[in-house]
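HOLO CASE FILE
Compound: fe (ii) ion
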Amino acid sequence: MTSADALLAELEPTAAQLLERHLATSKEWFPHELVPWSQGRDFEPGYKWSPEDGQLSDEVRSSLFVNLLTEDNLPYYFRTIERMFGADSAWGTWARRWTAEEGRHSIVIRDYLTVTRAIDPVQLERARMAQVECGAVPEPETPHDGFAYVALQELATRIAHHNTGKLLEDKAGYEVMKKVASDENRHYLFYRDLVTAALEVDPSGMVVAIERQVRTFEMPGTGILDFEAHAKAIARAGIYDFGIHHDQILVPVVLRHWSIEALEGLTPEAEQARAALVKRIERIGKAGRRFAARRDERLAAV
Ligand SMILES: [Fe+2]
Ligand SMILES: [Fe+2]
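Model generated. Tokens follow.
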């Protein structure tokens, strides 16, 4: 396997190019222009929030809660990314730019939720404190693993934000989530193409890392109180589940875009990892179809 330092050095020009493309395709936007301020009013100190204050289902509220707390946990994501990629050259420039953009996401989502009273602001603030104080984030061990994880995760986040937006009844909320999702898409494209380049430099090392990351993949949100229950609610609402993970990420990105099955000259260890990866993707697809069928039955019974 190519060492971490050698891989980062070899891919630095690619990172610089992808950063340039990212900047060229990003359009500046402002959170304050998307928030429906006229819907807001003061909160009296000690105000007791109730679900009737907003108009969201529990599932959509769960999704916004998890998405926002994840964006709030930036200090720790930044730490991991800087540790993995380094603070210098295009890598450092990218990590800081990415952090600034993710910060914009938490600003716009929090302002939207506060103004529309969609979530209990006391519960949210306490959860933010707990989340950042515990400092838990996924910590891939090598840049190989890091590239694979963030590529999958940014696309997963784009899909989750977009699907959440579609379930919001007001146009302002939809526009907020659409805007955030379009940033996540550019983050995803940066990492997707970085993985493509890394597969050329070190195919065996990358296949082993991709297999490991698919095997252990979790949506960001570890460390959030009741994360499991929220993840179940998010799946129930069809915002993010096994079927989406299989059909919109694993098949189009891992199998098609990275053409994992067509790679040649792999080491025996990487061959084994590839076989396990392909099998796992099939199993996840089956689980996704079973899950969707059960959900349809439940809905039909209501
Ligand atoms: Fe984000
Ligand atoms: Fe992102």
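CASE NOTES: Residues 114 and 266 are 52 Å apart (CA to CA). The mean pLDDT is 94.
CLOSED: yes
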